[in-house]
Specification:
With 101 residues, the protein is of the alpha+beta class. The chain has one helix and six strands, in the order E-E-E-H-E-E-E. It is extended. The relative contact order is 0.12.
Length: 101
């Protein structure tokens, strides 16, 4: 198994290129590629916002989907869903107004 932050399993298909990179769960850092591929900018910000992966050297690593004052990263397995946000109650159960059975 390669060290954390090192690319593994690169593959290509037609005009696509993907690289799988494993990072440490407690300190998920990886070098940014936004200076090489500018289109990676938003993808890296999304990965930071939702999963907490820190892209070292990124020009603007800020939240892109969640509000700036949001606590945590919602797609992490250890994320605890807040039961309130700015006085708005949260729920994990949803009811349909006119369910059909």
């Amino acid at each position: 198994r390669p060290p954390a932050g090192r690319p593994t399993d690169p593959w290509t298909c037609d005009h696509c290129f993907a690289v799988r990179v494993e990072v440490d769960r407690d300190s998920p850092h990886i070098p940014s590629v936004a200076d090489v591929w500018p289109a990676a900018d938003w993808h890296e910000r999304e990965a930071y916002d939702l999963m907490g992966i820190v892209f070292d050297g990124h020009p603007d690593l800020t939240r892109i989907l969640c509000p700036d004052d949001w606590a945590g990263h919602p797609l992490r397995k250890d994320y605890e869903f807040p039961m309130e946000y700015h006085g708005i109650p949260g729920t994990t159960e949803y009811e349909l107004p006119n369910p059909r059975h």
